[in-house]
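Q: My collaborator sent me two sequences in one message, no labels, and asked for predicted structures for both. Can we handle them in order? The first one she listed is below.
A: Yes, handling them in the order given. First sequence, followed by its structure tokens:
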Amino acid sequence: MFPPRGLPAVGDLPCHLGHARIGFGALHRRIVEPWRSTAYSRSTCRTSEDALSTVFPDLSSLSPPPSERWRVALRHGVPGGSNRLFHGDNLAALAWLAEHEPASFQCVYIDPPYNRGTKHAHYADARSRSAWLEFMARRLVLLRRLLRASGSLFVQLDDNELDYMKVVLDELFGTECFIGRVTVRARSPSAFSTVNRGVFKASEYLLWYARSRADFRYHPQRVPRPPDPAYTRWIENPQDPAEQWQLGRVRDAFIRERGPLTSRFRRSDPAYQQFVVDHAQHVFRLAPISDRKAGAGTVAAKVRSRQPPASVLVHHRSGGLEPVYILNGQQICRYDRNVTVIDGVHTASRPLTNIWTDIPWEGIAGEGGARFKQGKKPEKLIRRVLSLTTKPGDAVLDAFGGSGTTAAVAHKMGRAWVLLEHGPQARTIAEPRLRRVVDGLDDTGVSTVEDWHGGGGYAVLTPEAESPA
């Protein structure tokens, strides 16, 4: 329960929200306590709309008034699609979408203002903490309605408001719907950026939530890595039955193919590493078999395999499990399990983790021909998010559109998209960028790996009557 035993009550803990020093209990009473008195079920992650309205009693007033409608101000490319850029207040646009297109989006990615207390050329980033949380929560309520049951929400932030946001998201979605926190290397230290006290802040974060844990859908990903130097053994004839395998060393096979001049080489040499990848079905290593963790049949096979050394024993398992290949008491681990096709190239790989350091942020200023200082995200980052959670034809929503990165990447990947942006950059930066994508004039970002040459279309919508800020 909250608070933990032995700690003071929440209302007794002071919290600095902006310049005001108030009791954190005010925020607790506004967001947390109403949920304790509802029929909210954390086991299903299906929070009722009644519970949502207890947190925000004015929820019904978020819908735009009857006189407010969205009109098409511009169309470009092939007509009739569902790709749209809403240029206006994102709260009003979300309310309209929630009313007319609920449960329509497979992925919602947002990159909201980080509330760093600064002012940027395109948006203000200075609110009191309580005002920022209120600003975000009102939009998150509507974003949740827009997700499909199998869909995902990603919220990107730095460490300034990250943990406060997680509290709000845990209450709105349920803790069981929390999929993970991804740490992203967003910048590298330099002589001009390391003058502040403390360690250099290189990371940003993605909070990932499912709309429903039971219906959650995602696609596991793998990322490139150097070949594992532990794989040093060689099977000359892997196509034959395992009992007939002729075994040797990768080093000898490499020298045999490349000639004696390669007898002096290192495993870190690119030619050797490529040889391992190209011949992955021949390459293996030996791994110990645990008597405690392995099944009884595997352990018995391990003992039998020691009788005729240098001969491979095959243990066939029941239940549809793959056979285990054992050599002199150790399991044969084939390297071809670690090689996969990434962006059309056979590559040594590993499963994707929750720490992403392989996406470069340097040099992204020119992506899409869109200059958007201190707010732009790499196209490869959005591509990974969409690859994890969507398939071609799914719909993607970004409620803080900025320079249009999410829409541009979704378009190149064959996803439908809706982009919301209130600022002038919607028409001066995002729309021209999307026009270049549709016209096939954007060869930056993920265009090459997605083999993008143009196509499709979109519409720009504006409110017939200006909604309040």
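Q: And the one she listed second?
A: Here it is, processed independently of the first:
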Amino acid sequence: MTALHVLVPLTALLASLPARAAWWPQVQAAVAQEFSDLNDVGQITRTVLRLLLAALLGGLLGWERESEGKAAGLRTHMLTAMGAALTVSVVQQLGANLNEASRVIQGVIAGIGFLGAGAILKRQAGGREAVQGLTTAAGIWFTAAVGIAIGLGEESTAILSAVLAFCVLTLVPYLAPTPKRRPPTPASTAEPEPDPQPPPPP
């Protein structure tokens, strides 16, 4: 069943309703105009395929973060990739030129930067500050870039990039050297001095 098979009965149903008001034909025309893009089956197919691919690749990167117990996991990465792909696809469908499309892409990248910043945490660990979430923030940003590539129709580039990023997330931790721990400071290892006892009463 195509979109045309859905649109024709809907239009016939609206036409069969009693047109007692003068504004009813305008409502029919507005509804038909809003759903006129359903006749373009090729465009709908491209949009659905791009969104599905964005969800798949975003889910691939998000699954790795989810398995590591990170807050930004499977759903966050899937929605990030799908949102970026949908935004760029809509801009393309509207016939935007290169300059207009580049500004939209810049806006997407900047917005994702704020989302990634929320994944970065700073806490106290062992008497010194420790920053966590940098890899997750970079992964969210990279997922948006993958979604943008899909929205532009560069599916092969998006697939290759996502696979390489997945290898970085899964294999590099086993190759990276383990950071050396700092020895505890003398102040933290020294036993606290006992409180001075008051002198005995005379």
